[in-house]
């Protein structure tokens, strides 16, 4: 992997976050050459201040990362999720998911973003000149012509490829340059992210508790710690995030109870505003979007990155297969195939997470009753629970090769 001066590649990827890095690695593993562009060099960011955020990796996503060679480096620090308990405040009903209902594998793992990014970068480096990183680089213009597209950066450098891929997040610059419109909903909520130590072991149980302001999730980490994602109305979240550790810990304890014993925030605390952003199309002429550039969803189900990896798996399969057949990687036929594979799955999860957010983030009495009865009913239907567990694992439906643990 080298600093970018190359101008002609099989694909150019805008955005070097987790989705962009994984896309680049998947394409390189499939034999394609890639230029990766970001305004911040991911190699510098990986070695700087740690990102306290963690990511839930489903079973199918772990298979993808294993197949790409990026899992072994993070496996020792990844904590498995064996069970999930979902509850609603003031309701006696709860929902308990046990991984054994769907087999022996954990439902997923919790992995630190910093460690995962470092592992992806190490794997990309092993591909040498097949992958180039151009950073800092900001997209200034996009020109599409017969046989390819040219991305011009703010320093005047031009990059040409059959297809340009947008992995540059919910405010995607490439999406704007390609003229792809979006639908946006401001949830007026923000998530507080922190790491919590607790007196009692978590036994690999993930907790999610719904409160009127938003859900609180405690996700198991190693060494008797949990990752906290506390969602509240934005004004309240900003206030809570500024509390001293003792007051913050007491406020959290009041909301989630004492099943884990005394809770101690470890910091640093970070706050992220939440919105729903859905692209009206995932492809345009010689352009395709993946991850948050195509769909940024509420974290209520912990599936945002896994949804993006399903994009990566489908896109990598479509492009590598097209390359082996000698097809134009940016042709409308190839890109429409990618969109066809991803649209229904994505919109189903978008609708589910948006509906759950609206149903649970309120204190309306009739809806409280419906929520409680719904949790109690689902808890008593084993077939429904098994399907929900398999969905959380990412193993439902027809899967691309990488998500099945098979090479491209």
> What is the averaged pLDDT score?
91
CATH fold field value of the domain at 2-55 and 70-76 and 110-184 and 275-362 and 398-404? FAD/NAD(P)-binding domain
Distance between the termini: 21 Å
Q: Largest sheet, if any?
A: 9 strands, mixed
Explain what you see:
This protein is α/β, with parallel strands linked by helices and 408 residues long. It contains twelve helices and 22 strands. The protein has a domain at 2-55 and 70-76 and 110-184 and 275-362 and 398-404: 3-Layer(bba) Sandwich (FAD/NAD(P)-binding domain). It has helices at 18-29, 42-47, 59-67, 72-75, 113-125, 173-177, 234-241, 245-256, 304-324, 332-360, 365-379, 382-393; strands at 2-3, 11-14, 34-37, 54-58, 79-81, 83-88, 94-98, 108-112, 131-134, 139-145, 148-153, 158-161, 163-166, 182-198, 205-211, 214-221, 225-233, 263-265, 270-279, 283-284, 287-289, 295-296. The longest helix is centred in the last third of the chain and has 29 residues, at 332-360. It is globular.
Short description:
By secondary structure, the chain is of the alpha/beta class. The protein has helices spanning 18-29, 42-47, 59-67, 72-75, 113-125, 173-177, 234-241, 245-256, 304-324, 332-360, 365-379, 382-393; strands at residues 2-3, 11-14, 34-37, 54-58, 79-81, 83-88, 94-98, 108-112, 131-134, 139-145, 148-153, 158-161, 163-166, 182-198, 205-211, 214-221, 225-233, 263-265, 270-279, 283-284, 287-289, 295-296. Strands 6, 7, 14, 15, 16, 17, 18, 19 and 22 form a nine-stranded mixed beta sheet that branches. The chain has a seven-stranded mixed beta sheet with strand order 1-9-3-2-13-21-20. The chain has a three-stranded antiparallel beta sheet with strand order 4-8-5.
